[in-house]
Amino acid sequence: MARRRQLYEGKAKILFEGPEPGTLVQYFKDDATAFNAQKKGTITGKGVLNNRISEFLMIKLAEINVPTHFIRRLNMREQLIKEVEIIPIEVVVRNIAAGSIAQRLGIPEGTRLPRSIVEYYYKNDQLNDPMVAEEHITAFGWATPQDMDDIIHLTLRINDFLTGLFLGVGITLVDFKIEFGRLYENEDMRIVLADEISPDNCRLWDAKTNEKMDKDRFRRDLGKIEEAYQEVARRLGILPEAGARDMKGPETMQ
Ligand code: TMP
Ligand code: ASP
C-alpha cells in the first residue's frame, strides 16, 4: 500500500493526507513533551489510549450537537478527521486552580474557582504560547468577533458536558485545553472542535482522592503515567483490552 503523504508533525500527533479531499488522518504518537518541549519522553501506549479517549469524547460531544472534526477511528493509532483551518488559539477552561493559574495568581492548587474561567493562549512555540485577551485575537485577525462568539459558546457547553461526564465516572475535570478550526463546506464556514481531548490536555483528578490521572504525572515526575491514562480509559468504559465488548458505555462510580 502506498505510504500516505505526511502533512505535519506535531509534538504528540502526525497529520497525513486523507483518503478523500477534505479529510486527514490523525496519528497519535507515544511521545510526550512538557514546558514547550524542554522536557521530552515517551509514554508507552499513550497514543493508543488518547486515540480512543478522544474518539469517545468527540462522539459524545457530537451527540449534544457540538460540531467536531472527528469522522471515525481507523485503527489503534489513527482517526479520520475533516480538514479544518486551525484557529491559532489554545482555549483553556479552568474549574479548579492548578498549574499556571495557581502559580501566577498565588491560588493554592485545588481551590475551586468562583466560576469557570476561560483563557486564551496564542499558539506560537517561538513565543512560548503567550496568554492573550480577546482584544488581541480580534485586533490581529486570528479570529473574528463572530468566531469568538461561537468559540466561547461551544467552550462553555463542552465544559458543562465534560464536567458531568467525568464526574459520572468518579473523575473531577479540573481544567482542559481545546482548539477549534474553520470547516469550509460549500459556501458555508462553521467553527468546529478540532485537535484532541485526552489526558494530555486535561487535568483529571480522582474525585475521591484527588490523585492526578493526567499528563501532570509526566510533567511533575509522579510515575505511573501509563496506568493513569489506562485508568481514565477504563472508567470511561473504553479500554481496548477490557475484553470482547471493547466499546461498552461508561461505568458509573458510586
Ligand atoms: P496550565 O495550567 O499549564 O496553563 O494548563 C492548563 C490546561 O491546559 C491543562 O489541562 C494542560 C493544558 N495544556 C495543554 O494542553 N497544552 C499546553 O501547552 C499547556 C501549557 C497546557
Ligand atoms: N505539550 C506542551 C509542550 O510540550 C506543554 C504541556 O502540555 O505542558 O510544550
Automatic annotation (TrEMBL):
UniProt keyword annotations, A-Z: ATP-binding, Ligase, Nucleotide-binding, Purine biosynthesis
Keyword Endoplasmic reticulum in record: no
Domain of life: Bacteria
MF GO annotations: ATP binding; phosphoribosylaminoimidazolesuccinocarboxamide synthase activity
PROSITE patterns: SAICAR_SYNTHETASE_1 (PS01057), SAICAR_SYNTHETASE_2 (PS01058)
SAICAR synthetase/ADE2 N-terminal domain boundaries: 6-235
UniProt GO cellular component terms: cytosol
Enzyme class, broadest EC rank: ligase
Catalyses which reaction(s): 5-amino-1-(5-phospho-D-ribosyl)imidazole-4-carboxylate + L-aspartate + ATP = (2S)-2-[5-amino-1-(5-phospho-beta-D-ribosyl)imidazole-4-carboxamido]succinate + ADP + phosphate + 2 H(+)
Pfam families: SAICAR_synt (PF01259)
Pathway: Purine metabolism; IMP biosynthesis via de novo pathway; 5-amino-1-(5-phospho-D-ribosyl)imidazole-4-carboxamide from 5-amino-1-(5-phospho-D-ribosyl)imidazole-4-carboxylate: step 1/2
EC number of this enzyme: 6.3.2.6
Keyword Amino-acid biosynthesis found: no
Entries under NCBIfam families matching the protein: purC (TIGR00081)
Family the UniProt entry places it in: Belongs to the SAICAR synthetase family.
This protein's name: Phosphoribosylaminoimidazole-succinocarboxamide synthase
Record gene name: purC
